[in-house]
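Here is a typical protein record:
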Amino acid sequence: MPSGLLIYLRMRVMAIDFGTKKIGLAFTDPTVSFVSRTMTLRVKSDKDAAQKAAEFVNSEEVHKIILGYPLNDDGTKSQMTEKVEDFRKRLAKLVEIEIEYSDERYTSEEAEKYLHQAGKSIKGNKDRIDSISAALILNDYLQEQTGSTT
């Protein structure tokens, strides 16, 4: 098997749903075909969030980050948008890979609907909302890459 193919099969894309207290992470499989794993991390500060995300970039062999970009319903920036931009700057100093924004409007609402449809309470699964939101961001990215609308 050619070595270039082996390298490709070990790459991953990671999505981040940034929050000031928790960040949701989602990872593709090594072939960058589907969302394979999600998690939510508690963070103490923006610096801590960037450090923890950078650690996963290294340990999971991530070659690209998709960062949820929270905009208002009308497409304008919010206070959280500015925090995400600051987080991206911090993270970019720690990793040498591409960090791409992805519109994350409505992902939290979609995550809550998903939990509800699965018969889970939102109150008891707040941490899962962040990881599901990251998975939705990553899934949207993968669909854009393949041109799929499903």
